[in-house]
Amino acid sequence: MAGFVGHATAHHLLARGERVIGIDIVNDYYDPALKAARLATFDDVANFRFEKMDIADNTAVAALIKAEGVVRVVHLAAQAGVRYSIENPFAYQHSNLAGHLSVMEACRHAPGFEHLVYASSSSVYGDKPMGGAGFTEDEPATSPVSLYAATKRSCELMSQSYATLYALPQTGLRFFTVYGPWGRPDMAYFSFTQKIMRGEAIEVYGEGKMARDFTYIDDIVEGIVASLDHPPEGGRIAFSTLGTAIRSA
Fold it and tell me: How far is CA 238 from the centre of its chain?
């Protein structure tokens, strides 16, 4: 909820009259002051409540969802980043794997639960070119090239098993890099802009031949909310790719 996409999604839901309960551990993966500033935008906002909580704390998450009568969940919390995993691999195990399992368990035991929408990632497709004979949205995604991608694909597989075993309605959204106001400072567009403003050189990888798709935050939020409003029938799980809006090289 203190994160980039969660912050924007919460404001969208509140604006249309929903009651929102936000959960976030507010860690120091990047500047906690930015996260605190995002949370401050909810001050005195009606129908909003924030709980500082680790999503991997399955007892606390389940108790909150049950006590508040939650029937729809948007799960966007995860340990992000690729290079960070080199020195901190267990952060991904804790937040992404244990955290996702914790959320699913809480949802399946919640009375009258309707829909879990969760964030996956375009990184599950692996290191492939876009379009043509390279990337396609319906491929099996069996060759992740980073620990982050592997955990995100693992979450998808766990969700598929829960949909089969417990008829838990879920939608997994594979985001392409999201940008916009209140964005993450660890993203390339953010650091590039800072260096340009300071007159510093930009470090370019892949001999300048790499391409990356970005998606504007408002488009991502629209996709999240539209998915939330349309759960798959019969406890099935649905997958959707959100992105491919802008190409940069």
Answer: 16
Is 148 considered catalytic here? Answer: yes
Q: Which two tokens stand for residue 85?
A: 């995993």
Catalytic position from the list 125, 148, 162, 179: 148
For residues 241 and 223, is the Cβ–Cβ distance under 8 A?
A: no
pLDDT in tens, 13-28: 999 999 999 999 999 9
The tens digit of pLDDT for each residue in 106-162 reads: 999 999 999 999 999 988 988 766 555 666 677 788 888 899 999 999 999 999 999
Lowest-confidence segment of 30-44, 188-202, 228-242 by average pLDDT: 228-242
Of 117, 114, 123, 82, give the one whose Cα is nearest residue 100: 117
**DSSP of the chain:** --SHHHHHHHHHHHHTT--EEEEE---SSS-HHHHHHHHHTTTT-TTEEEEE--TT-HHHHHHHHHHTT--EEEE------SGGGGT-HHHHIIIIIIHHHHHHHHHHTSTT--EEEEEEEGGGG-S--BSTTSB-TTS------SHHHHHHHHHHHHHHHHHHHH---EEEEEE--EESTT--TTSHHHHHHHHHHHTPPPP--GGGT--EEEEEHHHHHHHHHHHHTSPPGGG-EEEEEE---EEE-
| CA nearest to 241, candidates 188, 143, 187, 172 | 172
The bridge status of strand 212-216 relative to strand 246-248 is antiparallel
Question: Widest CA span of the chain, in angstroms?
Answer: 56
